[in-house]
C-alpha cells in the first residue's frame, strides 16, 4: 500500500481543545485517495508530563508508510502546569475527545480521506492502559468521563499496558504513578479505579490484543496476563523482550504490534 519511494506523507498538527496539550499529529499517506483505516497512537510515560507524543512519531512514520492514516495524540499529564495538569478526569477526557475528533475536525482536515468507523488504537505502557480504556468506552455509564463515544474503535493493541490499575497500585508500579494519576489508592478512590481501569470494565465487545515482553521490568507481563484472562483477550508473549522494544520500529516486537493492529483493521 505504500506510495512511491520519493513520496512524502502529509503531517498536520490539529488541536482538539484548549490548552497546550490538547492536540495531535495527523499523518496521511501521499495522494488524495481514501485511506483504508486509521491508527490512533497513544504514547506512554506513566501518564507523566515529562513524556510526550514524540515517543509515538517513529511508530506513526512506520504505519503511514504502510498506507494507514495515523492520529498521534497528546493529552494532559500528571505534573503539567495549571490547566494543563492531567490525571483524573482530565487525561481520560482528553483521549476520549481526541478520538471523537476523528469524526469532526480531524476528518475535516483529512478532506474525506479517513473513515471514522475504521479506527484502532495502539498504546504503549500508560498509553496501553488508555488504548484499552478507549476500547471499553461504549460500556461506560452516563456521566462518566469518556461515555457515549462518537467514534467506536474496531479494536486496540496494548503494548506492555497497565491494564489492572488496582493491582498495579498495590504492586507499586512506577513508584506511585497510578496513585498520582488517579488521585489516591484503590481504597481511597475506588470509583475512579472502577471507571478507569480496563480490567474493571470487562466484559466489553471491542477486542484488545495485549503484546507484552516476558523480560519487562517496568510493567510486568502479569498486567497483561490478568487482563487477558479476565477479558478473554489475545495475549502475544514476547520471550526475553523488555519494556521498550515494542516501540522500536526496527524490532520484531514492534512488528507484532503492527501486525495486530492491521488484523484488527481487517
TrEMBL record:
GO MF annotations, alphabetized: hydrolase activity
Residues annotated as domain BD-FAE-like: 35-229
Keywords: Hydrolase
InterPro entries, per database record: AB_hydrolase_fold, BD-FAE-like_dom, GDXG_lipolytic_enzyme
A matching Pfam family: BD-FAE
Name of the molecule in the record: Prolyl oligopeptidase family protein
Species, as recorded: Pseudonocardia thermophila
